[in-house]
Description:
Its cofactor is Mg(2+). By secondary structure, this protein is of the alpha+beta class.
Amino acid sequence: MSQSTIKSLIQDTQPQRKIIHLDMDAFYASVEQRDNPQLRGKPLVVGGDPSGRGVVAAASYEIRKFGVRSAMSCYEAKRRCPEAIFVRPRFEVYRQVSQQIREIMLSLTDLVEPLSLDEAYLDVTGIKEHHGSATLMANWLRAQIYEQTQLRASAGVSFNKMLAKIASDINKPNGIAVITPDQADAFIATLPIERFHGIGKATAKRLHEMGIYTGADLRATPVDTLEYEFGKRGRFYSEIAHGNDTRPVKAERKHKSVGSETTFRDNLSDTESLLVQIFEQNADAFEQLTKKGRRGHTITLKIKYADFTQITRSHTLNTPFPTAESAHYWLQKLLADAPRHLPIRLVGVTYSNLTSLDDLNTQPDLFGL
């Protein structure tokens, strides 16, 4: 009996997975508009300042119609929309709201995999509430989130993570979309390859050069050809073109480190914009450390490139980093030491090798230089 036959038999005996991808609508900007009525209905940028310095961390829907997106320079955002209003991020507030939303999710299932502060996967397979309907569960989650936070969320429902994530973007904002097993093949066939999670601009360009523009084109391409062009990711591309994504929803685990990362809507190349984003993630990570009563001896910069390869660069001090700003020198150095052969799609900052603040308080000279 072939391995593919065995795999098929195993799948036939298992219940159909039910996956929800929940994505908050313009999360940072929506929180700011909720908390400040004067910002409601206005073209809002979270991050940077009106002088043009910095990078857009989030954009309200009112300003998106001008073509303003996250990771765009604030100078360009101001050029496209002179009436833009700029506010600084309040990561501590966003994190508190995110935790509130997380508790709502966990009241439905323990299988919650956060991707960031504003999105998560839920595996609701086998849950009996709401008549066992993942669609009803997703709508219940959206209603509960709005009732408790006054924030809107969109949801995608399907039988795997890839399709659920794509579905959550179909009817944004404040919408829901469902892709059933019977609909999947036809849906994937017409889907532009740029819409597949995991295929960025650089990969899409190479696929276009191979004459591949849709899911149907990708599905018809031999896996050997894709592996030759893209290495082991080529097989992943072939699998998703056939609707196969067996990745489990992984419940959040406690780590011995604290970090923050962000994925850019458009890849970045210039050092100034990257440093703005890195320093913002550093500030967020350090705030989390402080809330936990910890300090870190080791700081790590994570970089993911346009082709989805990633590297980390770390530096360790004998004494822990006393402030977020004290890490800026080393973060700049770590970025300068990293290869810059491709545009960058994600940066992250993590503190590890942690020390309790209570322990440091017994050693008042520990922060001395």
